[in-house]
Amino acid sequence: SMYNTRALVAISPQIWNQTWWVASDLRRTQLAKNGATAKLSNKYRDGATYTDYTPILRYAEPVLDLAEAYARKGQVGLGLAELNKVRNRAVTTASLQHTAQTITNAADLLTAVLRERRIEFLGEGRRWADIHRLQADPVHTTNGIPAKVLNSGITLANYPDAPAGWTMRGSDLTGFPYNDKRFLWPIPQEELLTNPTLKEQQNAGW
Predict the structure, then answer these.
(1) What is the pTM of this model?
(2) Terminal CA-CA length for the chain
């Protein structure tokens, strides 16, 4: 409802215009649509009776989990094969597909897998968990919560036909670093009253 019919959550131009999301990727046309002022997810299409599937876990996720695990173990060939099970469904131009010649090391494979997660699970609530779990990653951390673009600051002009490395401009919500207390929410007061032991274990700053 929020991602399509009510148009309360737009696809961020920050992901739409990444140069590594190739312009011919079928997910750009099959799973997204133009709203009045922004690109919207087209994954949830029944705005009347809401009969769309809302999967808890799609097959693509354990496949990409396995690809990431192989990347972190340095098993590039095995990881690349798993990555391509997901990516090549949408990137059908052979010259744009990942191969052993374009992904030659574990670091590049890991980057490709994490980018694929951002594309594949767009509008499915996986990004927040990835931001949290990657904070300690020396290369792929976001160093806290990234800055955000407000829907009111977006126009369709921010979504060119081909990726152009768009950078944030206009209205935005400022991000904050990992050590900001807002990164971890407080333990709810009701829980503290029910379990006095938790009073001494409240998250820092709250």
Answers:
(1) 0.90
(2) 33
Could you give the angle at which helices 60-72 and 106-120 cross, rounded to 10 degrees? 160
Q: CB 43: neighbour CB atoms within 10 A?
A: 18
pLDDT surpassing 70 at residue 30: yes
Span 151-177, pLDDT tens digits: 777 889 889 877 777 766 666 778 899
Cα separation, 14 vs 124, whole angstroms: 17
β-bridge partners, 33: 40
Residue 107, C-beta contacts closer than 8 angstroms, at least 6 positions apart: 139
Distance CA 29, CA 21 (A): 13
Task: Give the closest residue to 117 by CA, choosing from 105, 134, 102.
Answer: 134
Whose CA is closest to 16, among 29, 1, 4?
29
What amino acid occupies position 148? K
Q: CA-CA distances (angstroms) from residue 12 to 6, 23, 143?
A: 16, 16, 19
3-state secondary structure the chain: CCCCCCCCCCCCHHHHCCCCCCCCCCHHHHCEEECCCCEEECCCCCCCCCCCCCCCCCCHHHHHHHHHHHHHCCCHHHHHHHHHHHHCCCCCCHHHCCCCCCCCCHHHHHHHHHHHHHHHCCCCCCHHHHHHHCCCCCCCCCCCECCEECHHHCCHHHCCCCCCCCCCCCCEECCECCCCHHHCCCCCHHHHHHCHHHHHHCCCCC
If one counts every other C-beta atom within 10 angstroms of the C-beta of residue 156, the result is: 13
